[in-house]
Amino acid sequence: MGPFGAVKSVLSNAFTFSGRASRSEYWWWGLIYFGVGISLGYADYRAFEARLALGQAPIRSLLDFNSLIFVILAFFPNLSVTVRRLHDTDRSGWWQLITMVPFIGGIWFLVLMVFPLSHGPNRFGPPPSNGRLNGMLEIDSRFDAASLNSGKTQIHPAKFQPAPAGSAQAQKNAFRAYLTLENPDQGPSEEAVAARKAEMRSYYESRVVNAAR
Description:
single chain, 9 helices, elongated
């Protein structure tokens, strides 16, 4: 997820405290939030100095503190994305209270925020959505996304027919191959594993090796 997608996701889920948020969503939002906050704080400081130089009252109202207004407006989006990031590591949102522990609390919290996601569905729901992969699922009517979220995905080997390298079908086959190999509950046969590896090799050669030439 890029910076614009992260901001859009955080703001659209400002009051959503269920589900999960990826590391990229959390850290892109955090970086932008920090940058905007610092910029507004500097602007407030320069305005304060300018009013002093003109002999005016340096503070006329709370509206002069743009940075404070920004922090207040961003409170719930910040809280929400933090809770969902903790959910992504399979931890309760209450873990953010660890920052109240003197000295080590903040460091511990920072470590939690950089933890990788909990692979597959956890008690807080399925992994954070990925636009490209979701698109593959949507255009493949034979793929049961509900069974994927339940951890019991079953894909018939006959559906893994070879496809032209670089084609949309080859990309979908490679994605399904990854799911099959990574799903310990499915237990694919040796023939199915070989077919999946062939599809993945085809996708890699067409999209990585050939692109580098």
